[in-house]
């Protein structure tokens, strides 16, 4: 975490990470993350193998505003198949 705090759900465990901390998700493990705080968060994410960066375009602003949750879920659904990701269901967070 570069700034702020994120809450991660990794294979049934809830992990909170603040600035200076990290969370590790083994390949193929079910996971999600959410900013449950009231402050902005910045995170550095490293994937191996790479070439998944475009998936995260789902969260780009729409008309200079944060997209609605419904829009975000629609975009995640559209992009997941392109990047060979399986959406398991609603976030437990």
Description:
The protein contains one helix and three strands. Helices cover 15% and strands 17% of the residues. It has a three-stranded antiparallel β-sheet, with no helix packed on it. It starts with a strand and ends in an 11-residue tail after the last helix. It has two domains: 1-46, no CATH class; 47-86, no CATH class. By secondary structure, the protein is an alpha+beta fold.
Mean pLDDT, all residues: 90
- Sheet with most strands: 3 strands, antiparallel
Q: Output the helix-strand order.
A: EEEH
Radius of gyration: 13 Å
Strand order of the largest sheet: 2-1-3
Q: Oligomeric state of the chains?
A: single chain
List how many beta strands DSSP finds. 3
Number of domains: 2
Indicate the percent of residues in helices. 10-25%
Task: Tell me the strand percentage band.
Answer: 15-25%
What structural class do the secondary elements suggest?
alpha+beta
SS summary, helix count: 1
Low-confidence stretches: none
Q: Termini separation (Å)?
A: 18 Å
Shape designation: globular
């Amino acid at each position: 975490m570069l700034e702020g705090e994120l809450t991660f759900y990794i294979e049934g465990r809830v992990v909170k990470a603040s600035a200076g901390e990290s969370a590790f998700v083994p390949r193929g493990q079910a996971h999600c993350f959410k900013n449950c705080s009231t402050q902005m968060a910045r995170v550095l994410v490293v994937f191996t193998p790479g070439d998944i960066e475009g998936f995260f375009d789902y969260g780009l602003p729409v008309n200079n505003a944060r997209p609605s949750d419904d829009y975000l879920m629609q975009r995640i659904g559209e992009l997941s198949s392109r990047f060979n990701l399986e959406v398991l269901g609603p976030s437990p967070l």
